[in-house]
Amino acid sequence: MLRVLIALACASLVLAQEIEKDEGILVLTAKNYDKAVKDYQYLLVEFHAPWCGHCKALGPEYVKAAQELKEKDSEIKLAKVDGTEEEELVKKLKVKGYPTLFFYRDGEPIDYTGGRMANEIVGWVEKKTGPPAQTLETAEKVKDFIDEHEVVVIGFFKDLESEQCKKFQEAVQDYETYPCAVCSDEEAIKENKVEEGQVVLFKKFDEGRAVYEGAIGKDALRGFIEKYALQLVTEFNHDSAQKIFADLNKSHMLLFISKTAEDYEEKYALYKKVAEDFRFKIMFVVVDLDEDDHRRVIEFLGLKSETMPTSRIIRMTEMDLIKYKPDTNEISEEALRKFAQDYLDKKVPVHYLSEDIPEDWDKKPVKTLVGKNFDEVAFSKDKNVLVQFYAPWCGHCKQLAPVWDEVAEFLSTKEDVLVAKMDSTVNELAHTKVRSFPTIKLYKKNDNEEVEYNGERTLEGITKFLASGGEYGKAAPDHDEL
To answer: Which residues does UniProt assign to the signal peptide (predicted)?
Structure first.
């Protein structure tokens, strides 16, 4: 009788610990979340809310994905959490919106970057749980793998259990940019003219391949792949943009030219020739002027149609995009080579956009400033200068416009005050970086101290800011409006 009672007690304990399922999906709460993450080697968790439209759209696909994995007898489990019922869990895991998905592999979270359809969910989680690199058993499979993709990376190891092969697998774990594989077939090694232990990047352009050298490590190998996977001259488009600008602090030369121009092939050939000599120092990119999608890039750099074709060098940092302009628009090998070398030698000054000074810039109560006259006007020793930095498309700027006119009218009788505005989308300053619109700054007379205003955008507030010497409504250091 005692044994029966013990057995029943154990069975009750197991049942109590078993996680509830809804249409094959584990239902998690704060009480069982950590246990589920620990007990299941592979676990995808969706945080959802009953009122969320995107969650409702994902729901049926999520169920289909769970069913498909079950039919495959997969070790991957799908789970869900009702965020409206588990607020503490949402706070703990810093869930910012719905739906949010987390994937756990051996208890470690991985950002979910897959799609929202059942097949996309299944494909993504299977890739994350399978071998990091595909195994190619024969020379024919190696050939097919190379033919199917623009860029591939293959490690050739006679022993796939070797330490070197394991390091390669670890280095490409969760790497999704280009397909990776391993091969131990001797015929494949011979046919592809590689040595055992080599990692080779195959590509359908330029020199066709690149061989990795040195010890295999995650950062070094991925750096090698990103370096050699891009073409000597990359065509700018929607697909390539992210790869082109992925590396901050990398220098890019951009050639703006129409692909339908009669001399396009000639100019492209000499551009590529120059690119060969500056490879890995400057990335060379060509931007087709005929593509409507490229107009934003052209406008952002302040380029005019009458100056085309032309070139620019840009360098990206975390906060800024720094521009450099050649001293000529001539597209010749000599001119391009000189521009690139002078840039590397730090002989090319940073280029700042500026409109021409309007003839009537000072005829109205609100003076119009551009890059070319800003310093002369704003850094006056005998005037306090209030400047509004604006963008034509900015809604808040449009709301401020009549108030700014009112401020200028109100202060127009004060000889030591000047009210101005500058369109910061087409005018830039070396000393002032405008990161939000509108931005209001006071440049004090005598010492030209710069003070940013962050108070109410009213006549009373702005004039009080001026009267207080920039103390009332003064912005905190490094203030940025969202």
So the answer is: 1-16
For the stretch 424-459, pLDDT in tens is 999 999 999 898 999 999 999 999 999 999 999 999
Whether the per-residue pLDDT at 64 is higher than 50: the answer is: yes
Structure confidence at residue 295 (pLDDT): 80
Predicted model pTM:
0.67
Strand partners, 300: none
Residue from 55, 165, 180, 183 carrying the catalytic annotation: 55
Token pair for 225: 């792949």
**Whether the Cβ atoms of residue 43 and residue 104 lie closer than 8 Å to each other:** yes
Decide: residue 168, CB within 10 A, 0-12 exposed, 13-18 middle, 19+ buried.
buried
d(CA 247, CA 217): 19
Query: The domain 366-467 is classified under which CATH number: 3.40.50.2000, 3.40.30.10, 3.30.2000.30, 3.40.50.880?
Result: 3.40.30.10
Q: Please indicate whether the domains covering 233-344 and 366-467 agree at the CATH topology level.
A: yes
Alpha carbon distance 222, 216 (integer Å) = 10
Note if 165 is an active site residue: no
Q: Which candidate in 165, 180, 183, 397 is catalytic?
A: 397
90: left (phi over 0), alpha (psi -120 to 50) or beta: alpha
Per-domain boundaries in the chain: 17-129, 134-228, 233-344, 366-467
10, 52, 165, 180: which one is catalytic?
52
What does the alpha-carbon distance between residue 264 and residue 9 come to, in Å, rounded to a whole number? 82
The 3-state DSSP class for residue 142 equals helix
C-alpha dist (Å) from residue 116 to 44, 53, 121, 122: 13, 13, 6, 10
Please name which of 78, 75, 93 lies closest in space to residue 45, comparing C-alpha atoms: 78
Q: What is the DSSP letter of 412?
A: T
Active site residue 394: yes
Q: Rounded to whole angstroms, how far apart are CA atoms 399 and 397?
A: 5
Mean of the per-residue pLDDT values for the chain? 90
| Residue 10 annotated in active site | no
Residues 17-129, CATH architecture:
3-Layer(aba) Sandwich (3.40)
What CATH code is assigned to 233-344?
3.40.30.10
The count of residues in the chain is: 482
Please count the other Cβ atoms lying within 10 Å of the Cβ belonging to residue 148: 9
pLDDT digits (tens, 9 = 90+) for 182-217: 999 999 999 999 999 999 999 999 999 999 999 999
Cα dihedral across residues 274, 275, 279, 285: positive or negative: positive
Decide if domain 134-228 falls under CATH 3.40.190.10. Answer: no
Whether residue 423 contacts residue 390, with contact meaning beta carbons closer than 8 Å, is answered with yes
User: What pLDDT, on a 0 to 100 scale, did the predictor assign at position 3?
Assistant: 52
- Beta bridge partners of residue 257, listed in sequence order: 288
